[in-house]
Sequence to fold (83 residues):
Amino acid sequence: MKKLRAIDKFNKKASECLIVLEKTDSEQISISPSQGRWSLSELYDHIMRVARTYQIPNFKKSVTALAKMKKRKQQLNIGRVGL
Fold:
């Protein structure tokens, strides 16, 4: 399904970012640019937690619900063709 490829792309980019962060000095990525601003490590952590906890599961539910609706619609249309 095309929409699930978007999740694969997200996971690939997340992995690429993590590789870059792992190669970067831990002190550098922990530095907050100013008070009240997030460091790179905090930003990455936030993006991953929100995406994996809320966005991706909701995206999957939406795709599944949409697929079910399309299938149901096709079934109903097939039944009407024979009338």
